[in-house]
Structures are given as structure tokens and as C-alpha cells.
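hiii, so i know i said id send this last week but things got crazy w the move. better late than never?? heres the sequnce for the chain we talked about at the cafe, plus the structure i predicted for it. fair warning i was half asleep when i ran it
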Amino acid sequence: MRSGKFSPRNLIKRIDRVRSRLIRRLSEKRLYVYLAILGPGMIAANAGNDASGIATYSSVGAGFGYNLLWSFIPMVIGLVIVQEMCARMGVVTGQGLADLIREQFGVRWTALVMLALLIANTCVVISEFVGIAQASQLFGVSMYLTVPAAAIFVWWLVVKGNQKRVETVFLAMSLVFLCYVVSAFMSEPKWGEVATGFIRPTFRLEGAYLFTLVALIGTTITPFMQVYVQSSVVEKGLDKDDLNVVRADVIAGTIFATLIAVFIVISTAATLNVNGVTEIDSASTAAEALVPVVGEYAKYLFAIGLFGASMLAMGVLPLATAYSMSEALGFEKGLSRSFREAPIFLGIFTALIVIGGVVALIPGIPHIPLLILTQCINGLLLPVILVSILKLANNREIMGDHANTRAFNIAAWIVTITVSALSILLLYFTVIDLF
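okay and structure toks below
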């Protein structure tokens, strides 16, 4: 006679319990793997929502209401495609973007690209410090206190920290963007009109409309994001086995960052546009304009978001620049290296922090001309970077079986041609506006 302990029914129950424990442990393991790899894609995408980005999204909402929300759908697809190619190249080759450009296209071409990137990123770093100053003034705190304090904190974090600590802090800074989600719900938008803005594309052959649409796309996809995500993936030491998780990081980061931009547009459309406030020249102006409509809390939420966005971009931009310049020149680089081990890498980072902080404290700093100069340089640089990325991602000598597929290539070329054309169009509008 069989013992009840070893009956088929009890045996099946035991097998089910063991199976459940194994599934739970595998799920936990996958979660730990994702959390360990999470970082480059999320940080790069969110750094694009910097002070000038917030100003652009605010002006979109104020000037055009919900009419441009549809453009975020193709933008998020395009950004995922570009970021995925760079992350994949970093995983497969173990080299940064500037490294590959130097090896495949020569020193002269690399020097030209790096010079343009250095000038553009320096201007943007200055604008991020201006964003810190504007955010602090919204709280009634002197910029002569907050700007040096922010500069010292970011410098200390990067120079004295390590790769894991820097990424953890940058990811924590990304959570500040949730302020804009709260701000959007506080503004009580008409959600039916919001949905219509997504599903009913509108297009006008008007200078202001085209300029805003092009600026929106130019703000979302910028050269420094590609440099940063690839260099960060390389520094984490990820290999081909991690490729799927790296892709998940890129997709999650892009969707999160785009949703934040959408909520900024919604909050300003629901408050400023409906009340006739259509001209916004900075994120701080948008915050001040919200006060009569929504109240002081909305202003402070906007200010917190602006401060966090500027802090994140203020760290990522100098790092992206230091990565690219060090790779192009063949010097040691890395967040875990000391000044003695990587003097050029940390020296470039330090110089950009000092220049950005000092220039931003100059009374009457011409912020708008700086952004115009940045737009012009990025308008010329972005097509070059995108074409370089595509050529590298199709090079089977360096990518092997992980080169672009035909279907992916078609989508990537559509994105590259469209974004390049719009970047040149933005450059044209910017130059025409100057005269």
C-alpha cells in the first residue's frame, strides 16, 4: 500500500511548489539584471529634457495648445531607433562613438566633428547653469549661491565618485521630472482634446508653426545623447548577452522622457494657451505665467522640475563631451579613474563645469544668442552624426551578425533623412530670424 506522503497527488503538488519557486527566483534574477544594467538609455533620454527643452515644450503648449502632440509619436520611434543603434554598437564593439568614427572615417573628419560638438555642448552647458539660476530665483534664492553649489556638487560627484554612484544619482535626478506629471493633472486639461491632439495630425505651412515643429524635433534628438549612451554602455562592460536588456533600457528611457515632454505640453496648453498666453521665451517665464491660472504650487513644481533637469543635463553634457574628446584623441577615460589615470578626460569635464558656472554668473548673459548658436551648430552636426551612426551600424566588419537588418535599415534611413532635413530647416529658420 502506498504511503500518502508519496501519493501521485502529493508528488504533483510538490513539483508545482518547486516550479513556482524556480519561476519566482528567475523572475527576481531578471529584475536584478535589468536594474544592474538600467542607466545609459534612461539617463541619455532624460538629459534631453534640459532647460532649453523645457522652454521649447512650454512654448509648444502655450502657442499651439494640443495641436502638436501627434508629433511625439514619430519622435519617440525615431529616438528609440537612433539610441538603440548606438547602444548596440557599444555592446558589440566595446568602443565609444568617437572611437569608431576616428577608426573608420579618419582623424581629420573626427577632429571637425569633435570641434563642433565641443562648441555646441559648451554653449548648452552654460544654458544649463542659466537654468539653475532661473530655478533658484523662482524660489527667491540668489543664483550666486546655487550656481557655485550645483557646480561643486556635480564636479565632486563625477571626479570623486565611481560609475555606479554617478548613474544612481543621475537616475534619482530623473525622478524630479514627475513634477511635470503632477503639474499637468493640476491644470485640469480637457482629456478628450488631448486624445484628439495625438490621433489627428495637423500641419500648417506657416513659418511659426514649422519653426516650432522643427525645434521640437531638434530638442528631442541631439548629438550628445548618442555619444553618452554608447560610451556609458561601454564603460559598464556590457556584452552581447546583455543586448536585450540594454534595448529595454533604451526603450523605457525614451518612452519615459517623451511622456514627461508630453505632460509639459499638456500643462502649458491647458493653462496658458486657453488664457491667451502664447509667447514663452524660457522655462522660468512659463513657471511665472502659470501662477495667475493655477497658483503658486504649479510655479514651484515647474521650478523643481527645471532645477532637476538642469542638474541632470549639467552632469551628462560635460561627460558626453569628455568621453568623445578623450576617445577621439586616444586618451584614457572613465568615471572610475582618478585625475592621475585620466587627466584629459576629467580635465575636460572640469573645464566645462568651470566655464559654464562662471559665464552663467555674468550679469545680463545673452542666453537666447547662446541657444541660437547651439541650434545652428547642432543643425549642422546632427545629420553628420546620424549618417556616421548608420554607416557604422551597417559595417559587418565591426558589427558582424549584429549589423542592421534590412527592415531596421529602412526605418533608420527614414529617420535619418527626415531628422537631417528638419535640422537643416531649423538652421535656415534660425538664420532668417536673425536678420
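btw The domain at 38-434 is CATH 1.20.1740.10 (Amino acid/polyamine transporter I). thought thatd interest u
miss u guys!!
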